């Protein structure tokens, strides 16, 4: 399967699973773009794990978004099927469930939304940095394989006309 088809499939799958949109507005004087656009979450997923839906827990990360326990907790300890968030399996069950993981990522990005690169806009580039570096370290340089994959995905989406930089 070629890369463009894989990107499109990944984005459609993420979009189908995340069936809600955020209407929240920021009081900050910078422009914010909601993090839960299909292409943004799709490109973060592609960059972090190639959107590999077979990934489970390895070390301290779980699922296709490679979520840590602390990230999951900061995002609100979402659960699958109303599981008790304090159960031993709640974190892994959510992080390994595409819909729960996608909503967790969206919640985390909304919670820590900030202009990481100083361009006056909180957009998917900032959300990609927040996802990788965390809510308190996103001003680090955007280098390495993760950001290369993210930029390639973003470019591919823009060429398809289904997303924009902001």
Automatic annotation (TrEMBL):
It catalyses: Hydrolysis of (1->4)-beta-linkages between N-acetylmuramic acid and N-acetyl-D-glucosamine residues in a peptidoglycan and between N-acetyl-D-glucosamine residues in chitodextrins. Keywords: Antimicrobial, Bacteriolytic enzyme, Disulfide bond, Glycosidase, Hydrolase, Signal. Gene3D superfamilies: 1.10.530.10. GO terms for biological process: defense response to bacterium; killing of cells of another organism. Disulfide bonds join 40-124, 45-51, 57-62, 94-100. The keyword Disulfide bond applies. Pfam families: Destabilase. Its EC number is 3.2.1.17. GO terms for molecular function: lysozyme activity. The keyword ATP-binding does not apply. Residues 1-24 form the signal peptide. PANTHER family: DESTABILASE-RELATED, LYSOZYME. This is lysozyme. The lineage of its organism: Eukaryota, Metazoa, Ecdysozoa, Arthropoda, Hexapoda.
